[in-house]
């Protein structure tokens, strides 16, 4: 058998394994060594391929596809630094538990460590940041090795998707010539996989139901959840009569429920609560929500008065405060379903939730007065995006300030949309590409990205995919010309000659030109009604709605708001 | 002692260590965890700091500084994916043997592996791609630990600079609050370092001189060399009467020498040489030059007729063809100096070099006819850049096609300039930033980047540094709208529907807008005289001189040229 036929049959069998594991998307960066895999993936009708020149953006684009499709996505690149550019997306995929199948191609063994061009050590390239690394064998076409190639395709995707999901890396040594035989086809192999779920026993469930019934508890929901999952958390909160405090990405506020259990203003009210509001139970699902105020409140609760339960679905012990007395390892959704259907769990006195709602209303009334002024602030623009999202749309929210605005100001809506973000490591990198990957996964709904200027700049290259694939994404840009978050932190105390170059970092970029470069539209938004109108109008491709603000204004607004809330709470407690 | 004072004294002492190792530049990316190190580096008058928002570009900017300053350069970023963005530059630094001091800041131990925000495992983050990884101790201010901090600063820079030079990584766990005490100063500590050099003994030198004297040899020079080093290689070639074939980055053709030993057209003539031109000795310094024709010629030489010597300065056995019979481990420059000054090395018959010059002239005459047509091709634009470089200027040449044009068409000049490239792994990433780092190191000479459109796009973010620091860089852009190199490779046989999306990858970007975005000038060059004039005119900041070409034209030109050369050589051999 010729070199070309051997190589082609081996790689086709590997791709059959990917298909058997339901891979449907691949993001390919051009290169020479990767030629046979690129061509065979591109020619496979069951796989949609996207081509991306910048591998860093390609990695995050795949991450966005994986997020919105809830499926493993393949990445492919050539040898050398190309692969190193995937590293940020791989780290984020690991921490946010998303399955990426990273395929790198490499020189064969005889051309390694000899200074051959475009070659470097690719073994274990991503260190502990992938779940699994496989150095593939050189192509062979014996029945054993064709079955091996198929088995690696099948099982590595399955391994990537297992809880906790994450990236896997396969390195393919390939010899020249690299052109495959495009007339050949693969041999089908049949395998079935049954996958169990981690559930508690009936007696464990009953003991938890007994411990939680008739107690004043608080439900904390962190991590990324779908709107469907969010509804189940709300059902549990309603069953228990408990308030629910959550991370924005838990989608509690965007799942279309207006349940009275939802506390929208947790970040603003939690530190002002009187001490008699200390709960008897804290039931935390997943990571801590992003609110620092909530984290501080939780860390200061008197341990003798509050029992803490931590649902550790991933089994990774990510109990940041390390104060949980009971750790429950198992599926979050299965636990909720089992508690509601298999136990006699009972709600607490409705007065408990009612008192939370009193404080919630105080904050909401203050905010309503602020919003009436109708000023185009970062906070109000962010809130408007939330309010204007079309039903079943997708909003990607950037890190740093945008997600904090949503956390602070969102209130429940009566129609759902899905909120996404990169909260594995909360980087400002790759956000544009992740949002475009999300858009590519579901191009027929409304797709919006809420983002600051530094974050947009960091992944500006990602916009090329928007142009190339005509992806309908509306970017709401909060442009405060620099790193807005540092004005909220202690760095703000520094003198201007230290603060501005190191933390303010103004870019002075004209984003109208950025839109033009990538063939998008640009609107400089001057008022809230204008923003509202633009958000309601349809878009066929890329669109940047730019809101220009001053960094220091945002800080002053929050300080004024916090003072007002404190005064109101003090007045309430005295009354 | 307060937390703030302890942290500040510890970090100041570390920075003292860097200073003692002659660090003078640091490239800092903004972030919170890195605040104390960023402020203390920024405040240190002996260190020039550059601030770069995109860590990937920052990494390559530091690489460019290190290349042109021939000094270790510090990189600093915050925790999380920020550090992962350095990976491509770190891999390139390792393979091109440049000293980078990578400082990452991290959560303290109690906030690791608990799902804390912006945290991931940073230990051994860059795996085998750094020479050394150090997890620093938490700040302490005992005399022992202040000496430890100083010692780590001093020795890690020294380790990075030792042959083979390369990147080192230090990870600093830091607790909040993060603001340092800017009123404190460091305590000086005195240490001296004597560093030896790897040299051969007198008897070893004599045996080599005896083996090489009066033999028909060829000197092969690969790797990156300074123009000063290049002159020494030429001196050796003249001493032996041998032709010298080299990589463009060896700077043999740009060092200002017009020695008759220099063979400029090696790539074009080597495969056409008659068999009686087989040398008795091949003496190879460093990596193989980039010419594939030269590599094939070397690999096909009859072993019984040619003795091969490989000077392995880095000790890494990077003898790609694995055919060297003698491996010499030691300093290249010391070996040359010792051979010339301490031995009685003798030249071969001048007829040997004269016959090489006959073939060289044949090629040069054909090229002269081609150049007379005065067409604005990629080849001729590249040659013009070489010819027009101001004395003692700096030219950075991108990978893929630009460096191949220089390799094929450059001829010796009578004034020197320094040529740089990223030939560790030959990536298309980070090239703009490396060229800007080179410019920042020596802003007062002429600085030029010769680059294709994909490579410019891949690191477009890097242009921000050009705008921010008003770096005077002229970018000569060979825009063939896609991946030009693939038209020269076997992929060119593919049908258009496979070739264009996977290999052609047109960007369809308007580079006039790119220039405008980064406040540079843009000129669409229409003729060689116009390009010549623009290259001669001074620039104060960023400038893009765009040459638009067709990918297929380049291939046809090279094919036509190769046919002409073959015919001429055949006629010569018959004559």
From TrEMBL, chains A, B:
Its cofactor is Mg(2+); Mn(2+); thiamine diphosphate. Binds 1 thiamine pyrophosphate per subunit. Residues 412-536 form the Thiamine pyrophosphate enzyme TPP-binding domain. InterPro entries: MenaQ_synth_MenD, MenD_middle, THDP-binding, Thiamin_PyroP_enz_TPP-bd_dom, TPP_enzyme_TPP-bd. Residues 203-397 form the Menaquinone biosynthesis protein MenD middle domain. CDD domains: TPP_PYR_MenD, TPP_SHCHC_synthase. Homodimer. Belongs to the TPP enzyme family. MenD subfamily. This is 2-succinyl-5-enolpyruvyl-6-hydroxy-3-cyclohexene-1-carboxylate synthase. It comes from Vagococcus allomyrinae. The gene is menD.
């Amino acid at each position: 058998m010729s070199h070309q036929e051997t190589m082609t049959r081996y790689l086709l069998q590997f791709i059959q394994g990917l298909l058997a594991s339901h891979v449907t998307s691949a993001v390919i960066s051009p290169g020479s060594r990767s030629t046979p895999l690129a061509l065979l993936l591109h020619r496979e009708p069951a796989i949609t391929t996207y081509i991306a020149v910048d591998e860093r953006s390609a990695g995050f684009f795949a991450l966005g596809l994986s997020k919105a499709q809830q499926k493993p996505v393949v990445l492919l690149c050539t040898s050398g630094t190309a692969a190193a550019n995937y590293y940020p997306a791989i780290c984020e995929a690991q921490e946010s538990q998303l399955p990426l199948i990273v395929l790198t191609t490499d020189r064969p063994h005889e051309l390694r460590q000899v200074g051959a061009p475009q070659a470097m050590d690719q073994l274990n390239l991503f260190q502990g940041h992938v779940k699994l690394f496989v150095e593939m064998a050189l192509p062979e076409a014996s029945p054993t090795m064709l079955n091996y190639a198929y088995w690696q395709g099948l099982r590595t995707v399955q391994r990537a998707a297992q809880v906790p999901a994450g990236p896997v890396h396969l390195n393919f040594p390939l010899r020249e010539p690299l052109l495959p035989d495009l007339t050949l086809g693969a041999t089908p192999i049949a395998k079935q996989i049954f996958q169990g779920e981690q559930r508690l026993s009936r007696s464990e469930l009953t003991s938890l139901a007994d411990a939680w019934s008739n107690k004043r508890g608080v439900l904390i929901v962190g991590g990324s959840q779908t709107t469907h999952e969010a509804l189940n958390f709300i059902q549990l909160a309603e069953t228990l009569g408990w308030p629910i405090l959550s991370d924005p990405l838990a989608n509690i506020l965007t799942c279309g429920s207006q349940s009275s259990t939802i506390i929208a203003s947790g970040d603003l009210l939690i530190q002002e609560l009187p001490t008699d509001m200390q709960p008897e139970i804290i039931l935390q699902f997943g990571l801590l929500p992003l609110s620092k105020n909530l984290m501080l409140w939780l860390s200061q609760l008197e341990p003798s008065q509050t029992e803490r339960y931590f649902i550790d679905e991933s089994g990774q012990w990510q109990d940041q405060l390390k104060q949980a007395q009971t750790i429950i390892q198992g599926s979050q959704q299965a636990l909720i379903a089992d508690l509601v259907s298999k136990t006699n769990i009972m709600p607490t006195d409705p007065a408990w939730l009612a008192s939370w709602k009193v404080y919630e209303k105080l904050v909401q009334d203050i905010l309503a007065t602020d919003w009436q002024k109708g000023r185009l602030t970062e906070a109000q623009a962010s809130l408007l995006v939330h309010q204007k999202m079309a039903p079943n749309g997708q909003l990607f929210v950037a890190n740093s300030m945008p997600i904090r605005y949503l956390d602070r100001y969102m209130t429940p809506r009566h129609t759902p949309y899905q909120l996404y973000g990169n909260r594995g490591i909360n980087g400002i990198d790759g956000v544009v590409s992740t949002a475009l990957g999300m858009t590519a996964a579901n191009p027929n709904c409304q797709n919006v990205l809420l983002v600051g200027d530094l974050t947009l700049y960091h992944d500006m290259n990602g916009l090329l995919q928007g142009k190339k694939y005509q992806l309908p994404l509306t970017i709401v840009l909060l442009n405060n010309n620099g790193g807005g978050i540092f004005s909220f932190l202690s760095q703000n105390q520094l003198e201007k000659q230290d603060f501005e170059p190191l933390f303010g970092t103004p870019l002075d970029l004209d984003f109208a030109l950025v839109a033009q470069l990538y063939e998008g539209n640009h609107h400089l938004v001057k008022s809230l009604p204008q923003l509202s109108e633009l958000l309601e109008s349809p878009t066929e491709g890329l669109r940047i709605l730019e809101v220009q603000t001053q960094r220091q204004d945002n800080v002053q607004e929050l300080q004024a708001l916090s003072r007002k809330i404190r005064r109101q709470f003090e007045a309430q407690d005295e009354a």
